[in-house]
Amino acid sequence: SSAPVLPRPTPSSPSTPTRPAALPSQADSQTGQTLLLRLQISDSTGAEQRRDVRVDRSATVAHLKERHIVAGAAGDWRCRCVFHGRLLNDTESVSRLPDGAFIQCYLQQKLQAAEAE
């Protein structure tokens, strides 16, 4: 039962949100091609990370999880995303969310088959 490997904030900026290295231009957002989502990612150990990401409006919640949330975590993780108290379904389009939406993401390590028995 190892904890996910999430990047930790540096001591010089403990509460500064991390941002991806390359975001699409603001022009993309203004023309409606991308959507800014503010993620708060928590795991079962209590570790927390904030990340601002831009995703294509045609992406699904499953794509968001795969590409921006569990991609950097070691091991097999289940991710649940919540917006305004509502669990988001993997098949939902992110286009239903407003630009700048705050999404809470919860990571829970999946049990191995041997541990489940």
Could you explain the architecture of this structure?
The protein has 117 residues and is an alpha+beta fold. Helices cover 15% and strands 32% of the residues. It is built from 3 helices and 5 strands. It has a 5-stranded mixed β-sheet. The longest helix has 9 residues. The two termini are 15 Å apart. About 21% of the residues have low confidence.
Q: Determine the strand fraction and express it as a percent band.
A: 25-35%
* Largest sheet, spatial ordering of strands: 2-1-5-3-4
Sheet of most strands: 5 strands, mixed
Say how many strands there are: 5
Instruction: Please tell me what the overall shape is.
Output: globular
Helix content percent band: 10-25%
Structural class call reads alpha+beta
Q: Which stretches are low in confidence, meaning pLDDT under 50 for 5 or more residues running?
A: 7-30
Distance between the termini: 15 Å
Summarize the structure.
This protein has three helices and five strands; from the N terminus they run αββαβββα. The chain is an alpha+beta fold and 117 residues long.
